Amino acid sequence: MNWWTTDDTHDPERTSWVDSAQGHCDFPVQNLPFGLFAPLGLEPRIGVAIGDMILDLRACARVGMVDPAVSGSLQETTLNQLLSLPGGQRRVLRHHISALLSDPAHRPALSDKLVRAADCVMHVPATIGDYTDFYAGIHHANNVGRQFRPDNPLLPNYKYVPIAYHGRASSIRASGVPVRRPMGQRKPPEADAPTFGPTERLDYELELGVWIGAGNELGTPIPIAQAGDHVAGFCLLNDWSARDFQAWEYQPLGPFLAKSFQSTISPWIVTAEAMAPFRIAQPLRPEGDPEPLSYLLDADDQRHGALAITLEALLLTRAMRDQGLAPMRLCQGPAANLYWTVQQMVAHHASNGCNLNPGDLLGTGTISAPTRDGLGSMVELTVGGKEPIHLPSGETRGFIEDGDEIVLRATAQAEGFVPIGLGECRAVVMEAK
Ligand code: MN
Asked: 403-429 pLDDT, tens per residue?
């Protein structure tokens, strides 16, 4: 079984006896993402999303309703052990859950193990040992590079090296947790010296998150042909950024406090198995671009390694909320705008022998499109704040203000299959303190 092979769990005819699953924009029975949820006042436990409901997998495991081989990992308080399972075992579990939720014969035994998602708090699903953020959105790299270096937007390494930096794992929070506007050093170009204060250029970044499954031993690289076996699933990632801090601190070692104050993820892990129907060929590189070096080049990865996912970011200000207005879409674009596949990121990350662990998180980098409607950050949309955007409330925005909420969403679509979503990634910005 390859990570792009579909099976009867993806059958578009399959339905669930959980009514809200039918036609659900994120969680039809073809998705079945794993998460860590807490019903009101209770401790977190592992579950699977189905329509507007969550099936309590810990409760299922406790009464022997799942394969004994995975029963222990479903009773943990994080998903790390489940993520560490070989893809084959996760696939068996997926088949089993799909059968439980599609065959109405299981309804009587499961109805007391279903809770309304709206009544639960979602947690960060795994203990994230390490978080690495890539920079694989080439249009973003071009747009931002042009602002920092007009004559030289892409540095010479970009088309050879999947560029990344080591991010901060401790400050990653699940969707819904507010973000405090960070304090830091900022020095406008015209000023002689920096001052310390709240960021004046708070930004969002629209990214895919990648959950690492099985890890590799320190000193043992992951060959590109096997890199897909180490990817357990996907989420949305908002890599909040303080652009003024970033501009001042980023040379020579890259982002630090401009990014580490908080990152927000969607709480559901949409598995690599669920994503199988939505694998597409990596777009051909433009004429004149170099071929990836051989350790990053694999025929199957080029044929199946990209993702048919459309991502979008929306903004809801306090005034818009007060006026009952809907969030305004800031951008929308395909994940195929990534210059590197997720497998290339994994193979590159481990190519020096660096060990990845179950529950590590990768960010793809901001995914922007070449056109204005697909720019995945404010710094691109407003050209560094110089061309503010106009909102339906009559307000304008150069960057994100206190009380603003950023919402990320994404849908995977392919001809002949039921679309699935990644669930929401949202957070409100609170004033600095
Ligand atoms: Mn980023």
From this structure: 999 999 999 999 999 999 999 999 999
